[in-house]
Amino acid sequence: MTHPLLAALEGGLIVSCQAYPAEPMRHPETMTQIAEAAVRGGAVGIRAQGIADIRSIHERVALPQIGLWKDGADDVFITPTLEHALAVIAAGAQIVAIDGTRRARPDGLTLAETIARIHEQTTALVMADVGSVADGIAAHEAGADCVGTTLCGYTGERPKSVGPDLEVLRELASTLPIPVIAEGRVHTPAQASACIDAGAFAVVVGTAITHPTTITTWFADAVAR
Q1: Domain enclosing residue 17, as ranges
Q2: Three-state DSSP class for residue 9
Q3: Per-residue pLDDT tens over the stretch 78-99
Q4: Which end of the chain has fewer CB atoms < 10 Å from its terminal CB, N or C?
């Protein structure tokens, strides 16, 4: 049976409200306003990065929130340790997104140990961000409540596709008994729809909705002569 928190996301759009370091929009208030705008547009959930952003959004947006903490320059940087995960949850995230690959984690814990301790110490659910089918299967076996295709094309196991990695999405969705959430390079409504057709439980869109710098370059490049 699907957890009620995940059931609220099924078949819907999750908007990732994040800004890159040193950008003008890198501010909790700005990200919270974007999240509030996403609610008005029909989002069913919010994905946010950083303790201050997560806390602010939690206080003002009633939708389920997937929280993460990007830290470090190593391969594993999405909520890389148990300590990071617990801080994200304490800030208000009901679902914590963590690196769900088979790579070594900075604190020396295995993925299964990390997930087990999160479940033991909190009521939060765990979203494992994976980069391949093998990652997704391993994350499920490690106890993840759902998996996302977030890291497909970024770990060296898969080529970086122009749009979402529908091949991995389709295989995971047909293999795993837990929700598989599409995330990564979903830049158009047509691509989001294709993700649902491929079996996605829900779809995360970030850049195409919340990153005006990138969107501006798309249009600027299109009109440049």
Answers
A1: 4-223
A2: coil
A3: 999 999 999 999 999 999 999 9
A4: C
Q: CA-CA distance, 185 to 206, in Å (whole number)?
A: 8
Nearest-angstrom CA–CA distance, 81 and 109: 8
Q: How far is Cα 61 from Cα 32, in angstroms, rounded to an integer?
A: 8
Tokens of 82: 């148990």
pTM value surpassing 0.70: yes
Largest CA distance in the chain: 58
The CATH number covering residue 143 comes to 3.20.20.70
| Each residue's pLDDT tens digit, 176-221 | 999 999 999 999 999 999 999 999 999 999 999 999 999 999 999 9
Dihedrals φ, ψ of 65, to 5°?
A: -120, 130
Q: By the 8 A CB rule, do 170 and 189 touch?
A: no
User: How far is the C-alpha of 132 from the C-alpha of 153, rounded, in Å?
Assistant: 8
Residue with tokens 């946010």: 48
When divided into structural domains, the chain yields a total of 1
Q: Of 108, 112, 114, 61, which is closest to residue 85 (Cα–Cα)?
A: 114
Q: Read off the pLDDT of residues 115-151 as tens digits, 9 standing for 90 and up.
A: 999 999 999 999 999 999 999 999 999 999 999 999 9
Token pair for 122: 């909190």
